[in-house]
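Suppose a colleague, Dr. K., hands you the sequence of a protein chain of 204 amino acids and asks what its three-dimensional shape might be. Before reaching for any lab equipment, you can write down a predicted structure in token form. Begin with the sequence itself:
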Amino acid sequence: MNGPAPTARCSSPEQGLDVARGVAHLHADALQVLSTWAAPDADQDRLRTAYLAHLERHPDGVAKAGPPEHLTASCLVISPDGGHVMLTHHRRAREWFQFGGHLETTDASLHAAATREGREESGLDSVSPAPVVIQLDRHTLSGDFGRCRAHLDVRYAAVVDRDVAPVASEESLDVAWWPVDDLPPGSRTELSALVEATRRALGI
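The predicted structure, expressed as tokens, is then:
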């Protein structure tokens, strides 16, 4: 998996400085989190190093209004036995994903952003991710994502009882529980890897 490449800006230097000031606390948190995270394998450690290099190049690299390639935060909701995950059928991408999205200036940290996204997109206030990074994933975007070209995702996970019913937000076509051995077509490779990483990290 290749790391982030330098990206061209779509804003003036002055606008870039304003964006960087607004997300300085998130930039600092991302540096701290990624500098201290013990990656589970060599591929993840290469991504960790690439994320840090991206942040060093881009003071606004955690913002949607920053470079077209920027950090995001997401949350996989998994049942206590690890047998099911709650996914969103994303309205723009038209694919099934874990909950997640762009960081906002009101977020205190990457973990707080993942928590907010999980609660907003599931409709459940009970979504509370564990405060440990589960996985990093860089993915290019397809669909109606405007100027965004790639997301450098920092992934967390939350355990929620299987009998809890989600409520779809405006960003979703649907939200539903899926068995981990029968994930939506087209998402199985990526989501299966995230499920396994979650099970290992949370001891499920």
